[in-house]
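#lab-general

N.A. 3:47 PM
ok so I finally got the sequence cleaned up, no stray characters, all 153 residues accounted for. can someone with queue access submit it? mine expired

B.Y. 3:52 PM
send it over

N.A. 3:53 PM
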Amino acid sequence: MTTTTPLLLITADPSHPLAHLALRYARAYLKSAANSHDIEDNDTNSTGSSDNATTEQPLLNVFFYGDSAHIANRLRWQSAEQIDLTQEWKNLAKQYQLPLPVCVSTALSRGISDSENGTRHRLDGDNLVKGFTLVGLSELAMMMQSNCRLIQF
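B.Y. 4:20 PM
back already:
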């Protein structure tokens, strides 16, 4: 049976309600998928064939594009009464081993850089949050090439 891995294409600025909705969706989906995945693993283990861990698909693909790149800015201040989307995405990524790719060109155009791009483009420092990675649009294309359901926030 072929499974469809959702791809969350997040384009909303962190202050926009859609950015918060994307996080809530990802949380709910991952929790549900992990629970059903545990059931499938238990079924597989009982039959004795479970050596496909290296070819296992991710539960969810995420890609930060456009204004959502601001979520990956470690210098973005967050008031105490608002949800810190950056920290919440980091927590979710740690819990589910979820990559957090950010489009490099949209990040750089918004003043967000890692050390490698900072050096390459002669920028004064870097400010990418640890856990996020700057990637090219080819990463998004590869995610879309596989059997996926695209959901944009």
